[in-house]
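Narrative summary of target 7.
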Amino acid sequence: MVVSTLLMLCWVTPQARPSWAPDMPPSRARVVPGPGPGQVAIHVAYAGIQWGDTMVRDGHFPVPRPIVPGFEASGHIIAVGDGVDPGRIGEPVAALTTAGAYAEVTVAPAVLALEIGALPLRTAAGLGWGAPHTT
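Modeled conformation, tokenized:
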């Protein structure tokens, strides 16, 4: 099953902003492309917060705005793009994204969506994707 569009949701009200980013403006719901070739769409259960997220928030990385932040997430694959085994739908994964991990649904390269087996999703979201950036 390949989805042509997915709804990405993030902070809709000021009250829903994370405490670590009170100055970050709220995002609005928007439609984004579904998974492209070699990608998976993930229903996000948990998102990790790492150094890169704070650098984006503070304007140190030039990224197009508005942006839904977040580079690492855990959840279940809900759709796959061309070239990805459709048997992965429903698989629990920890994933590295280029942005959007704080959304309800995010897209990631399939090779960076690692099957986590029985590891709890809460734990998998913080597997340490950002560790190379802190050394």
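Residues 1-17, 130-135 have pLDDT under 50 and may be disordered.
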